[in-house]
Amino acid sequence: MVSFFRRKKDKDAAAGESGDTRKGSLDIEALAAAFPKAPSAAGADGNDDERAAADAGTGAENEARADEAPATEPEATGAGAGAAVLDDPTPAETVAPAPVAATPPLSSNAQDKPAAAPGKPGWRERLRGSGFSRGLGGLFSRNPKLDDDLLDEIETALITADVGVTATTGLVEHLRKRMKAREFADARALLAALRAELVALLEPVAKPLVIDTATRPFVILTVGVNGVGKTTTIGKLARRYKDEGHGLMLAAGDTFRAAAVAQLQAWGERNGVAVVAQGQNADAASVAFDALQAAKARGVDVLIADTAGRLHTQQGLMAELGKIKRVLGKLDPTAPHEVLMVIDGTTGQNALSQLRQFHAAAGVTGLVVTKLDGSAKGGVVFALAREFGIPIRYAGIGERPEDLRVFDAEAFVDALLPDELGNA
Ligand SMILES: Nc1nc2c(ncn2[C@@H]2O[C@H](COP(=O)(O)OP(=O)(O)OP(=O)(O)O)[C@@H](O)[C@H]2O)c(=O)[nH]1
Ligand SMILES: [Mg+2]
Protein backbone atom coordinates (compact mmCIF):
# COMPACT_ATOMS: atom_id res chain seq x y z
CA MET A 1 0.00 0.00 0.00
CA VAL A 2 2.91 2.31 0.53
CA SER A 3 3.71 3.16 -3.03
CA PHE A 4 0.11 3.32 -4.18
CA PHE A 5 -0.68 6.49 -2.31
CA ARG A 6 2.55 8.20 -3.23
CA ARG A 7 0.87 10.15 -5.92
CA LYS A 8 3.67 12.57 -6.68
CA LYS A 9 7.19 11.34 -6.99
CA ASP A 10 10.15 13.62 -6.42
CA LYS A 11 11.05 14.34 -9.99
CA ASP A 12 14.66 15.33 -9.42
CA ALA A 13 15.27 12.27 -7.32
CA ALA A 14 13.79 10.02 -9.97
CA ALA A 15 15.98 11.57 -12.62
CA GLY A 16 19.01 11.20 -10.38
CA GLU A 17 18.32 7.49 -9.90
CA SER A 18 18.13 7.01 -13.62
CA GLY A 19 21.59 8.42 -13.99
CA ASP A 20 20.39 11.54 -15.75
CA THR A 21 22.69 14.41 -14.89
CA ARG A 22 20.42 17.23 -16.05
CA LYS A 23 18.93 19.11 -13.11
CA GLY A 24 15.17 18.91 -12.72
CA SER A 25 15.25 16.59 -15.64
CA LEU A 26 11.92 14.80 -15.48
CA ASP A 27 10.66 17.88 -17.24
CA ILE A 28 8.51 16.36 -19.97
CA GLU A 29 9.53 18.68 -22.73
CA ALA A 30 13.24 18.31 -22.06
CA LEU A 31 12.96 14.53 -22.01
CA ALA A 32 10.74 14.42 -25.04
CA ALA A 33 13.18 16.62 -26.92
CA ALA A 34 16.05 14.37 -25.88
CA PHE A 35 14.14 11.19 -26.58
CA PRO A 36 13.54 10.74 -30.30
CA LYS A 37 17.01 9.70 -31.34
CA ALA A 38 18.33 7.50 -28.58
CA PRO A 39 15.65 4.95 -27.67
CA SER A 40 14.11 4.83 -31.13
CA ALA A 41 17.34 4.06 -32.87
CA ALA A 42 18.19 1.51 -30.19
CA GLY A 43 14.94 -0.30 -30.62
CA ALA A 44 15.21 -0.31 -34.35
CA ASP A 45 18.55 -2.04 -34.60
CA GLY A 46 18.59 -3.72 -31.23
CA ASN A 47 22.29 -3.03 -30.80
CA ASP A 48 22.45 0.12 -28.79
CA ASP A 49 24.83 -0.45 -25.90
CA GLU A 50 23.41 2.29 -23.75
CA ARG A 51 19.90 0.95 -24.13
CA ALA A 52 21.01 -2.61 -23.47
CA ALA A 53 22.81 -1.47 -20.34
CA ALA A 54 19.78 0.47 -19.18
CA ASP A 55 17.50 -2.51 -19.70
CA ALA A 56 19.90 -4.84 -17.97
CA GLY A 57 20.30 -2.40 -15.12
CA THR A 58 16.62 -2.04 -14.42
CA GLY A 59 15.76 -5.67 -15.07
CA ALA A 60 17.15 -7.23 -11.91
CA GLU A 61 15.96 -4.41 -9.73
CA ASN A 62 12.47 -4.58 -11.08
CA GLU A 63 12.31 -8.31 -10.99
CA ALA A 64 12.89 -7.99 -7.27
CA ARG A 65 10.10 -5.44 -7.07
CA ALA A 66 7.76 -7.56 -9.07
CA ASP A 67 8.42 -10.54 -6.86
CA GLU A 68 7.02 -8.53 -3.98
CA ALA A 69 4.14 -7.43 -6.11
CA PRO A 70 1.17 -9.38 -4.80
CA ALA A 71 1.67 -7.98 -1.30
CA THR A 72 1.11 -4.41 -2.43
CA GLU A 73 -2.06 -4.67 -4.52
CA PRO A 74 -4.27 -1.61 -4.11
CA GLU A 75 -7.63 -2.33 -2.51
CA ALA A 76 -10.51 -0.87 -4.42
CA THR A 77 -12.95 -1.84 -1.73
CA GLY A 78 -11.10 -0.16 1.14
CA ALA A 79 -12.65 3.17 2.08
CA GLY A 80 -9.27 4.83 2.18
CA ALA A 81 -8.32 3.78 -1.29
CA GLY A 82 -11.62 4.84 -2.77
CA ALA A 83 -11.55 8.20 -1.07
CA ALA A 84 -7.97 8.92 -2.03
CA VAL A 85 -8.71 8.66 -5.70
CA LEU A 86 -12.25 9.91 -5.84
CA ASP A 87 -11.41 13.09 -3.91
CA ASP A 88 -9.03 13.85 -6.68
CA PRO A 89 -10.35 12.49 -9.94
CA THR A 90 -7.53 14.15 -11.82
CA PRO A 91 -4.42 12.08 -11.20
CA ALA A 92 -1.45 13.95 -9.85
CA GLU A 93 0.58 14.00 -13.00
CA THR A 94 -2.05 13.74 -15.68
CA VAL A 95 -1.04 15.73 -18.71
CA ALA A 96 -4.06 17.62 -19.90
CA PRO A 97 -4.96 17.30 -23.56
CA ALA A 98 -2.71 19.66 -25.42
CA PRO A 99 -2.38 20.86 -28.97
CA VAL A 100 -0.03 18.97 -31.25
CA ALA A 101 3.38 18.94 -29.62
CA ALA A 102 6.34 20.55 -31.28
CA THR A 103 8.45 17.42 -30.75
CA PRO A 104 7.13 14.33 -32.46
CA PRO A 105 8.22 11.15 -30.66
CA LEU A 106 9.54 9.59 -33.82
CA SER A 107 13.05 8.57 -34.59
CA SER A 108 14.93 10.81 -37.01
CA ASN A 109 14.77 7.87 -39.36
CA ALA A 110 10.98 7.90 -39.29
CA GLN A 111 10.79 11.57 -40.05
CA ASP A 112 12.68 11.09 -43.29
CA LYS A 113 10.27 8.42 -44.52
CA PRO A 114 6.81 9.15 -45.84
CA ALA A 115 3.88 7.36 -44.28
CA ALA A 116 2.86 4.19 -46.12
CA ALA A 117 0.23 4.79 -48.76
CA PRO A 118 -3.27 3.60 -47.88
CA GLY A 119 -4.54 0.26 -49.17
CA LYS A 120 -2.63 -2.57 -50.80
CA PRO A 121 0.08 -0.40 -52.43
CA GLY A 122 1.15 0.79 -48.95
CA TRP A 123 1.56 -2.78 -47.70
CA ARG A 124 3.41 -3.83 -50.82
CA GLU A 125 5.81 -0.95 -50.88
CA ARG A 126 6.69 -1.53 -47.21
CA LEU A 127 6.92 -5.34 -47.25
CA ARG A 128 8.80 -5.62 -50.51
CA GLY A 129 12.17 -5.91 -48.75
CA SER A 130 11.04 -8.63 -46.34
CA GLY A 131 12.85 -11.96 -46.21
CA PHE A 132 9.67 -13.70 -47.29
CA SER A 133 9.11 -11.67 -50.40
CA ARG A 134 12.78 -11.76 -51.37
CA GLY A 135 13.02 -15.54 -50.99
CA LEU A 136 9.80 -16.60 -52.66
CA GLY A 137 9.57 -13.59 -54.96
CA GLY A 138 13.00 -14.35 -56.39
CA LEU A 139 11.95 -17.92 -56.98
CA PHE A 140 8.85 -17.13 -59.01
CA SER A 141 10.29 -14.19 -60.89
CA ARG A 142 12.79 -16.66 -62.47
CA ASN A 143 9.79 -18.27 -64.20
CA PRO A 144 10.58 -21.75 -62.86
CA LYS A 145 9.52 -25.14 -64.19
CA LEU A 146 6.67 -26.86 -62.41
CA ASP A 147 8.41 -29.80 -60.75
CA ASP A 148 9.50 -31.30 -57.42
CA ASP A 149 12.58 -29.10 -57.36
CA LEU A 150 10.35 -26.04 -57.33
CA LEU A 151 8.40 -27.42 -54.37
CA ASP A 152 11.66 -28.15 -52.54
CA GLU A 153 12.79 -24.59 -53.16
CA ILE A 154 9.47 -23.24 -51.93
CA GLU A 155 9.85 -25.36 -48.79
CA THR A 156 13.32 -23.96 -48.11
CA ALA A 157 12.16 -20.40 -48.77
CA LEU A 158 9.20 -20.75 -46.38
CA ILE A 159 11.31 -22.22 -43.59
CA THR A 160 13.96 -19.55 -44.10
CA ALA A 161 11.24 -16.90 -43.86
CA ASP A 162 10.22 -18.22 -40.40
CA VAL A 163 6.96 -19.86 -41.40
CA GLY A 164 8.07 -22.78 -39.24
CA VAL A 165 8.60 -26.43 -40.10
CA THR A 166 5.12 -27.70 -39.25
CA ALA A 167 3.21 -25.06 -41.18
CA THR A 168 5.64 -25.28 -44.10
CA THR A 169 5.44 -29.07 -44.36
CA GLY A 170 1.64 -28.91 -44.30
CA LEU A 171 1.54 -26.30 -47.05
CA VAL A 172 4.12 -27.92 -49.32
CA GLU A 173 2.80 -31.46 -49.02
CA HIS A 174 -0.68 -30.29 -49.90
CA LEU A 175 0.66 -28.46 -52.95
CA ARG A 176 2.66 -31.55 -53.94
CA LYS A 177 -0.47 -33.70 -53.89
CA ARG A 178 -2.31 -31.20 -56.02
CA MET A 179 0.60 -30.99 -58.45
CA LYS A 180 0.69 -34.78 -58.81
CA ALA A 181 -3.05 -34.69 -59.46
CA ARG A 182 -2.22 -32.33 -62.36
CA GLU A 183 -4.21 -29.48 -60.90
CA PHE A 184 -1.67 -26.87 -61.99
CA ALA A 185 -0.96 -26.05 -65.61
CA ASP A 186 2.23 -24.17 -64.77
CA ALA A 187 4.23 -22.50 -62.00
CA ARG A 188 1.92 -19.50 -62.14
CA ALA A 189 -1.03 -21.68 -61.15
CA LEU A 190 1.04 -23.13 -58.33
CA LEU A 191 1.83 -19.61 -57.11
CA ALA A 192 -1.88 -18.76 -57.13
CA ALA A 193 -2.61 -21.90 -55.09
CA LEU A 194 0.16 -21.09 -52.61
CA ARG A 195 -1.20 -17.57 -52.20
CA ALA A 196 -4.70 -18.92 -51.58
CA GLU A 197 -3.43 -21.40 -48.97
CA LEU A 198 -1.48 -18.68 -47.19
CA VAL A 199 -4.54 -16.43 -47.11
CA ALA A 200 -6.62 -19.35 -45.79
CA LEU A 201 -4.12 -19.84 -42.95
CA LEU A 202 -4.44 -16.21 -41.89
CA GLU A 203 -8.10 -15.55 -42.45
CA PRO A 204 -9.28 -17.13 -39.18
CA VAL A 205 -7.04 -14.78 -37.18
CA ALA A 206 -7.64 -11.60 -39.17
CA LYS A 207 -10.21 -10.31 -36.70
CA PRO A 208 -10.10 -6.57 -36.12
CA LEU A 209 -10.37 -5.22 -32.61
CA VAL A 210 -13.88 -3.91 -32.09
CA ILE A 211 -14.17 -1.29 -29.37
CA ASP A 212 -17.32 -2.10 -27.45
CA THR A 213 -18.84 1.32 -26.90
CA ALA A 214 -21.21 -0.09 -24.29
CA THR A 215 -18.17 -0.79 -22.11
CA ARG A 216 -16.80 2.47 -20.85
CA PRO A 217 -13.91 2.72 -20.55
CA PHE A 218 -12.85 -0.09 -22.85
CA VAL A 219 -9.48 -1.02 -21.34
CA ILE A 220 -6.58 -2.18 -23.51
CA LEU A 221 -3.48 -3.51 -21.76
CA THR A 222 -0.40 -3.74 -23.97
CA VAL A 223 2.31 -6.28 -23.20
CA GLY A 224 5.41 -7.67 -24.86
CA VAL A 225 9.18 -8.05 -24.62
CA ASN A 226 11.57 -5.10 -24.70
CA GLY A 227 11.72 -2.84 -27.71
CA VAL A 228 9.05 -4.57 -29.79
CA GLY A 229 7.10 -1.36 -30.38
CA LYS A 230 4.50 -1.27 -27.57
CA THR A 231 4.70 2.44 -26.86
CA THR A 232 4.88 3.37 -30.53
CA THR A 233 1.84 1.17 -31.21
CA ILE A 234 -0.07 2.90 -28.40
CA GLY A 235 0.79 6.24 -30.00
CA LYS A 236 -0.48 4.99 -33.35
CA LEU A 237 -3.63 3.58 -31.75
CA ALA A 238 -4.23 6.87 -29.95
CA ARG A 239 -4.20 8.63 -33.30
CA ARG A 240 -6.48 6.03 -34.88
CA TYR A 241 -9.07 5.93 -32.09
CA LYS A 242 -9.07 9.70 -31.74
CA ASP A 243 -9.73 10.03 -35.47
CA GLU A 244 -12.58 7.54 -35.06
CA GLY A 245 -14.10 9.86 -32.44
CA HIS A 246 -13.35 7.92 -29.25
CA GLY A 247 -12.48 9.78 -26.04
CA LEU A 248 -9.10 8.45 -24.95
CA MET A 249 -6.72 8.23 -22.03
CA LEU A 250 -3.29 6.63 -21.82
CA ALA A 251 -1.63 5.11 -18.75
CA ALA A 252 2.17 5.27 -18.47
CA GLY A 253 2.56 1.85 -16.91
CA ASP A 254 6.20 1.50 -17.98
CA THR A 255 7.75 2.97 -14.87
CA PHE A 256 11.16 1.35 -15.31
CA ARG A 257 12.70 4.23 -17.21
CA ALA A 258 11.95 7.95 -16.99
CA ALA A 259 12.29 8.17 -20.76
CA ALA A 260 9.51 5.60 -21.20
CA VAL A 261 7.03 7.82 -19.37
CA ALA A 262 8.20 10.83 -21.35
CA GLN A 263 7.87 8.87 -24.60
CA LEU A 264 4.21 8.11 -23.91
CA GLN A 265 3.57 11.66 -22.74
CA ALA A 266 5.04 12.97 -25.98
CA TRP A 267 2.67 10.73 -27.97
CA GLY A 268 -0.20 11.95 -25.77
CA GLU A 269 0.66 15.58 -26.37
CA ARG A 270 1.03 14.98 -30.04
CA ASN A 271 -2.47 13.54 -30.27
CA GLY A 272 -4.08 15.76 -27.64
CA VAL A 273 -4.72 12.80 -25.34
CA ALA A 274 -4.42 12.79 -21.52
CA VAL A 275 -1.71 10.57 -20.04
CA VAL A 276 -1.83 9.32 -16.45
CA ALA A 277 1.66 8.88 -15.01
CA GLN A 278 3.33 8.67 -11.65
CA GLY A 279 6.95 8.93 -12.71
CA GLN A 280 9.79 6.47 -12.70
CA ASN A 281 9.80 3.50 -10.31
CA ALA A 282 6.14 3.93 -9.36
CA ASP A 283 4.22 0.69 -9.02
CA ALA A 284 2.90 -0.19 -12.49
CA ALA A 285 -0.31 -1.70 -11.08
CA SER A 286 -1.02 1.45 -9.11
CA VAL A 287 -0.59 3.57 -12.25
CA ALA A 288 -3.09 1.32 -14.03
CA PHE A 289 -5.50 1.50 -11.08
CA ASP A 290 -5.24 5.31 -10.90
CA ALA A 291 -5.72 5.60 -14.63
CA LEU A 292 -8.81 3.42 -14.70
CA GLN A 293 -10.30 5.36 -11.84
CA ALA A 294 -9.59 8.66 -13.64
CA ALA A 295 -10.92 7.30 -16.93
CA LYS A 296 -14.15 6.24 -15.23
CA ALA A 297 -14.52 9.60 -13.52
CA ARG A 298 -14.06 11.42 -16.81
CA GLY A 299 -16.28 9.15 -18.85
CA VAL A 300 -13.46 8.27 -21.23
CA ASP A 301 -14.28 5.69 -23.96
CA VAL A 302 -10.93 3.93 -24.28
CA LEU A 303 -8.04 3.57 -21.83
CA ILE A 304 -4.78 2.16 -23.19
CA ALA A 305 -2.17 1.11 -20.64
CA ASP A 306 1.51 0.78 -21.50
CA THR A 307 3.71 -1.68 -19.64
CA ALA A 308 7.46 -2.08 -19.43
CA GLY A 309 9.06 -4.51 -21.83
CA ARG A 310 9.98 -7.76 -20.12
CA LEU A 311 11.58 -10.98 -21.15
CA HIS A 312 9.12 -13.83 -21.23
CA THR A 313 11.60 -15.87 -19.21
CA GLN A 314 11.63 -13.45 -16.24
CA GLN A 315 9.08 -14.99 -13.92
CA GLY A 316 8.84 -12.13 -11.44
CA LEU A 317 8.18 -9.59 -14.16
CA MET A 318 5.70 -11.86 -15.88
CA ALA A 319 3.80 -12.22 -12.57
CA GLU A 320 3.55 -8.42 -12.39
CA LEU A 321 1.30 -8.53 -15.48
CA GLY A 322 -1.10 -10.75 -13.61
CA LYS A 323 -1.10 -8.24 -10.77
CA ILE A 324 -1.90 -5.35 -13.14
CA LYS A 325 -4.82 -7.35 -14.51
CA ARG A 326 -6.14 -8.20 -11.05
CA VAL A 327 -5.92 -4.60 -9.92
CA LEU A 328 -7.84 -3.39 -12.98
CA GLY A 329 -10.40 -6.08 -12.26
CA LYS A 330 -11.05 -4.60 -8.83
CA LEU A 331 -12.50 -1.50 -10.45
CA ASP A 332 -14.16 -3.30 -13.33
CA PRO A 333 -14.40 -7.09 -13.17
CA THR A 334 -14.48 -7.26 -16.98
CA ALA A 335 -11.27 -5.22 -17.42
CA PRO A 336 -8.93 -5.38 -19.22
CA HIS A 337 -11.12 -5.95 -22.23
CA GLU A 338 -8.19 -6.57 -24.53
CA VAL A 339 -4.71 -7.81 -23.65
CA LEU A 340 -2.80 -6.75 -26.71
CA MET A 341 0.56 -8.39 -27.15
CA VAL A 342 2.99 -6.62 -29.42
CA ILE A 343 5.40 -8.87 -31.31
CA ASP A 344 8.38 -7.73 -33.33
CA GLY A 345 8.03 -9.25 -36.80
CA THR A 346 11.81 -9.62 -37.07
CA THR A 347 11.93 -11.93 -34.04
CA GLY A 348 11.55 -15.21 -35.89
CA GLN A 349 10.49 -18.44 -34.22
CA ASN A 350 11.24 -17.03 -30.76
CA ALA A 351 7.95 -15.17 -31.11
CA LEU A 352 6.19 -18.49 -30.49
CA SER A 353 7.72 -19.00 -27.06
CA GLN A 354 7.16 -15.33 -26.24
CA LEU A 355 3.47 -15.64 -27.00
CA ARG A 356 3.19 -18.91 -25.08
CA GLN A 357 4.61 -17.33 -21.92
CA PHE A 358 2.73 -14.04 -22.17
CA HIS A 359 -0.48 -15.88 -22.84
CA ALA A 360 0.04 -18.01 -19.74
CA ALA A 361 0.79 -14.94 -17.60
CA ALA A 362 -1.70 -12.43 -18.94
CA GLY A 363 -4.25 -14.17 -21.19
CA VAL A 364 -3.44 -12.53 -24.51
CA THR A 365 -6.56 -11.73 -26.55
CA GLY A 366 -5.02 -10.00 -29.56
CA LEU A 367 -1.72 -9.43 -31.34
CA VAL A 368 0.02 -6.60 -33.10
CA VAL A 369 2.95 -7.63 -35.31
CA THR A 370 5.31 -4.69 -35.82
CA LYS A 371 8.31 -3.88 -37.97
CA LEU A 372 7.00 -5.86 -40.92
CA ASP A 373 8.58 -3.17 -43.07
CA GLY A 374 12.30 -3.45 -43.65
CA SER A 375 14.05 -6.72 -43.04
CA ALA A 376 11.31 -8.70 -41.23
CA LYS A 377 10.90 -12.15 -42.64
CA GLY A 378 7.15 -11.96 -42.11
CA GLY A 379 6.70 -15.72 -42.04
CA VAL A 380 6.31 -15.82 -38.28
CA VAL A 381 2.81 -14.41 -38.71
CA PHE A 382 1.78 -17.71 -40.35
CA ALA A 383 3.42 -19.74 -37.60
CA LEU A 384 1.63 -17.70 -34.91
CA ALA A 385 -1.69 -18.04 -36.69
CA ARG A 386 -1.35 -21.78 -37.07
CA GLU A 387 -0.11 -22.49 -33.57
CA PHE A 388 -2.31 -20.21 -31.45
CA GLY A 389 -5.25 -18.95 -33.48
CA ILE A 390 -5.16 -15.71 -31.45
CA PRO A 391 -6.57 -12.76 -33.45
CA ILE A 392 -3.98 -10.55 -35.14
CA ARG A 393 -5.44 -7.08 -34.77
CA TYR A 394 -2.89 -4.79 -36.38
CA ALA A 395 0.32 -4.78 -38.39
CA GLY A 396 3.04 -2.17 -37.90
CA ILE A 397 4.59 -1.27 -41.23
CA GLY A 398 6.63 1.76 -40.23
CA GLU A 399 7.32 4.23 -37.47
CA ARG A 400 4.84 6.95 -38.36
CA PRO A 401 1.46 7.33 -36.66
CA GLU A 402 -0.23 6.32 -39.93
CA ASP A 403 1.85 3.16 -40.31
CA LEU A 404 -0.43 0.86 -38.33
CA ARG A 405 -2.82 -1.20 -40.42
CA VAL A 406 -5.80 -3.29 -39.43
CA PHE A 407 -4.48 -6.76 -40.17
CA ASP A 408 -5.83 -7.95 -43.49
CA ALA A 409 -4.92 -11.49 -44.59
CA GLU A 410 -5.21 -10.78 -48.30
CA ALA A 411 -3.33 -7.49 -48.29
CA PHE A 412 -0.56 -9.13 -46.25
CA VAL A 413 -0.14 -12.12 -48.56
CA ASP A 414 -0.43 -9.88 -51.59
CA ALA A 415 2.39 -7.71 -50.28
CA LEU A 416 4.64 -10.68 -49.56
CA LEU A 417 3.87 -12.55 -52.73
CA PRO A 418 2.32 -10.38 -55.45
CA ASP A 419 0.23 -12.17 -58.01
CA GLU A 420 2.20 -10.53 -60.84
CA LEU A 421 5.32 -12.49 -59.87
CA GLY A 422 4.02 -15.38 -61.90
CA ASN A 423 3.87 -13.20 -65.01
CA ALA A 424 7.61 -12.95 -65.41
N1 LIG B 1 10.32 0.10 -38.77
C1 LIG B 1 9.47 0.04 -37.76
N2 LIG B 1 9.87 0.47 -36.56
C2 LIG B 1 8.98 0.40 -35.54
C3 LIG B 1 7.67 -0.09 -35.70
N3 LIG B 1 7.05 -0.04 -34.50
C4 LIG B 1 7.95 0.46 -33.62
N4 LIG B 1 9.12 0.73 -34.22
C5 LIG B 1 10.36 1.25 -33.66
O1 LIG B 1 10.84 0.34 -32.69
C6 LIG B 1 11.55 1.04 -31.68
C7 LIG B 1 11.05 0.61 -30.32
O2 LIG B 1 9.72 1.03 -30.17
P1 LIG B 1 9.04 1.28 -28.76
O3 LIG B 1 7.63 1.68 -29.04
O4 LIG B 1 9.85 2.16 -27.91
O5 LIG B 1 9.09 -0.19 -28.17
P2 LIG B 1 8.61 -0.70 -26.74
O6 LIG B 1 8.09 -2.07 -26.92
O7 LIG B 1 7.69 0.31 -26.14
O8 LIG B 1 10.00 -0.73 -25.96
P3 LIG B 1 10.22 -0.89 -24.37
O9 LIG B 1 9.24 0.00 -23.71
O10 LIG B 1 11.63 -0.50 -24.14
O11 LIG B 1 9.99 -2.34 -24.06
C8 LIG B 1 11.35 2.52 -31.98
O12 LIG B 1 12.48 2.98 -32.66
C9 LIG B 1 10.14 2.55 -32.90
O13 LIG B 1 10.15 3.67 -33.75
C10 LIG B 1 7.27 -0.53 -37.02
O14 LIG B 1 6.15 -1.00 -37.27
N5 LIG B 1 8.21 -0.44 -37.99
MG1 LIG C 1 7.76 1.26 -24.32
UniProtKB/TrEMBL annotation:
Catalyzed chemical reaction(s): GTP + H2O = GDP + phosphate + H(+)
Region (Disordered): 1-25, 38-128
Membrane-topology descriptor: Peripheral membrane protein
Annotated TM spans: none
Predominant localisation class: membrane
SMART domains: AAA, SRP54, SRP54_N
A Pfam family: SRP54
Listed InterPro entries: AAA+_ATPase (IPR003593), P-loop_NTPase (IPR027417), Signal_recog_particl_SRP54_hlx (IPR013822), SR_rcpt_FtsY (IPR004390), SRP54_GTPase_dom (IPR000897), SRP54_N_sf (IPR042101)
Function: Involved in targeting and insertion of nascent membrane proteins into the cytoplasmic membrane. Acts as a receptor for the complex formed by the signal recognition particle (SRP) and the ribosome-nascent chain (RNC). Interaction with SRP-RNC leads to the transfer of the RNC complex to the Sec translocase for insertion into the membrane, the hydrolysis of GTP by both Ffh and FtsY, and the dissociation of the SRP-FtsY complex into the individual components.
Family that this chain belongs to: Belongs to the GTP-binding SRP family. FtsY subfamily.
Subunit note: Part of the signal recognition particle protein translocation system, which is composed of SRP and FtsY. SRP is a ribonucleoprotein composed of Ffh and a 4.5S RNA molecule.
The protein's name in its UniProt record: Signal recognition particle receptor FtsY
Classification of source organism: Bacteria, Pseudomonadati, Pseudomonadota, Gammaproteobacteria, Lysobacterales
Gene: ftsY
